User: Fold this.
Amino acid sequence: MRLLVLLTVCFAALSAPLQSAEGQLYRWVDEDGAVHYTDSLPPERARDGRRVYSRGGIAEEDIEAAPTEEERQALREEQRRQEEEAAAQRRAREEQAAYDRFLLRTYTGTEHIRRARESRLERLDHSRGLLQDRLERDRNDLSELRSQAAEAERGGHSEAALDTLYTRIERLQRRIDARERDLMELDREEDELLAEFQAHLERYRELEAEQR
Assistant:
């Protein structure tokens, strides 16, 4: 009879190995790889990963280890990157919507866009023509002044007279340089204008297709 009671107690103890007075046990592993079952965690293990068991020895929850400072910093940076990416996408959508409204309110069709492009190009060509005429006159004047300066040097003119000629030559050369830069700027504006109106045409066609 005593042997039967002892066996019954041993069996009961083995059948509920994970019970505790508080109803839960924690399974955790130390630095050496040893597995521990305790009814509370050591303070130094509070941030570690562990498994929580019920009174019946059933695993109820796996709690992941708390992230390290480096991991938290990486998470913050990733969150910031995602927020910035979302903000950039939102701005892009808003800008696209504003551009589409501009096209639809400004132009009645692709032919209207072409006419507007040609009008802008004509104004650029007119400005280029005026600038080229002035540049040609300045170059002729510069050639004439240089000839006068050469004759003055050969003729032994005064230093004051020569200085006056050289000053006019330098001033005229600066003006020629400025006009040449202006011509290059007009070329750049024309390239940008053509690209801009090509983009207008392509997007307007897409909007027309969407509205069909």
In short: Residues 159-211 form the longest helix (53 residues).
